[in-house]
């Protein structure tokens, strides 16, 4: 029995270390919202102009910074698109992925439908200090409430949006 307790204790310590490292990495790599980010007009590929403030007023908004050339994004983008298709409040920013035609072709080839803002030169992402793709930002009523970088599961995104609603 003492061996089992020792293993359980060591496993608990390992889990705590992993969680601490994850939070530290998110803190170090996390984006910083620019001043007045909520009122900055953004244009979707469809031509519609929106702001993050208006998009996040009724319910939390997931802002997803991604790129067509990002390997991890190839795993997370379908989950973000599924969340958007289910009616989730999602906005994606295509970072340095080419012109609008190229992004539309990429999305069509992958059968992905979600709201996209094109950031061909990385200017919007630079304003947010996004240094890692993918980057996920949760905004509620114009206020950043959560950020994370790297791979995140569909259920992780859903949980973050749900938690932000409280």
TrEMBL record:
<dbReference type="Pfam" id="PF00578">
    <property type="entry name" value="AhpC-TSA"/>
</dbReference>
<feature type="domain" description="Thioredoxin">
    <location>
        <begin position="31"/>
        <end position="166"/>
    </location>
</feature>
<feature type="transmembrane region" description="Helical">
    <location>
        <begin position="7"/>
        <end position="28"/>
    </location>
</feature>
<protein>
    <submittedName>
        <fullName>Protein disulfide oxidoreductase</fullName>
    </submittedName>
</protein>
<dbReference type="InterPro" id="IPR050553">
    <property type="entry name" value="Thioredoxin_ResA/DsbE_sf"/>
</dbReference>
<keyword id="KW-0472">Membrane</keyword>
<keyword id="KW-0812">Transmembrane</keyword>
<dbReference type="InterPro" id="IPR000866">
    <property type="entry name" value="AhpC/TSA"/>
</dbReference>
<dbReference type="InterPro" id="IPR013766">
    <property type="entry name" value="Thioredoxin_domain"/>
</dbReference>
<dbReference type="InterPro" id="IPR036249">
    <property type="entry name" value="Thioredoxin-like_sf"/>
</dbReference>
<keyword id="KW-1133">Transmembrane helix</keyword>
């Amino acid at each position: 029995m003492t061996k089992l307790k020792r293993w359980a204790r060591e496993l608990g310590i390992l889990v705590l270390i992993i969680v601490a490292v994850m939070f530290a990495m998110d803190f170090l790599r996390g984006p910083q919202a620019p001043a007045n980010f909520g009122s900055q007009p953004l244009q979707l590929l469809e031509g519609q102009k929106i702001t993050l403030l208006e998009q996040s007023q009724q319910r939390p908004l997931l802002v997803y910074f991604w790129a067509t050339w990002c390997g991890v994004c190839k795993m997370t983008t379908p989950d973000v698109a599924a969340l958007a298709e289910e009616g989730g409040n999602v906005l994606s920013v295509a970072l340095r992925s080419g012109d609008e035609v190229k992004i539309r072709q990429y999305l069509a080839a992958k059968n992905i439908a979600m709201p996209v803002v094109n950031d061909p030169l990385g200017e919007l992402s630079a304003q947010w200090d996004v240094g890692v793709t993918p980057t996920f930002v949760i905004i509620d009523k114009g206020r950043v409430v959560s950020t994370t970088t790297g791979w995140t599961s569909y259920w992780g995104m859903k949980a973050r949006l749900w938690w932000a609603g409280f």
